[in-house]
Amino acid sequence: MSTTEESRESVLHKFFRKLMEELLNKFSSEAIEMDLSLQEHYIIEILGRNEKMTISNLADKVSAPLTTISSTLDRLYEQNYVERERSQEDRRVVEVSLSEKGQGCFDVHQEETEELIDQFLSQLSEDDKKEMQRILSSFEWEDQAGDE
């Protein structure tokens, strides 16, 4: 690898590490402000991107055991962040979704995350932003409800 390639790779790594660090710091401070654990805050984020989810689908999405997700949802339910409802198709299945309070939390998080990303992107020219968008659109991203 040439020095130029190493330098370019180093810059990319630095950019993504810094962006991830800033997002994680933001995520953590939001969770602390709302008296939520990081996992509770993350579940609100996932539910905000999906209208309703079964508990098992949510457990798969966050790669956590069903028992862990169930107890986390119990805490979120007690704090009025989520609602539970029996599935109309299969009464044995419980679906969870955000309550009004949970949706408000999600909306604030989305807005603040977009502002943070915009701060990073504001350092780029319009041509560079278009080029970055072109490059990133070539990746195969996991399709997640609510993503644009």
Automatic annotation (TrEMBL):
<dbReference type="InterPro" id="IPR000835">
    <property type="entry name" value="HTH_MarR-typ"/>
</dbReference>
<keyword id="KW-0238">DNA-binding</keyword>
<protein>
    <submittedName>
        <fullName>DNA-binding transcriptional regulator, MarR family</fullName>
    </submittedName>
</protein>
<dbReference type="GO" id="GO:0003700">
    <property type="term" value="F:DNA-binding transcription factor activity"/>
</dbReference>
<dbReference type="Pfam" id="PF01047">
    <property type="entry name" value="MarR"/>
</dbReference>
<dbReference type="InterPro" id="IPR036388">
    <property type="entry name" value="WH-like_DNA-bd_sf"/>
</dbReference>
<keyword id="KW-0805">Transcription regulation</keyword>
<dbReference type="GO" id="GO:0003677">
    <property type="term" value="F:DNA binding"/>
</dbReference>
<feature type="domain" description="HTH marR-type">
    <location>
        <begin position="9"/>
        <end position="141"/>
    </location>
</feature>
<keyword id="KW-0804">Transcription</keyword>
<dbReference type="InterPro" id="IPR036390">
    <property type="entry name" value="WH_DNA-bd_sf"/>
</dbReference>
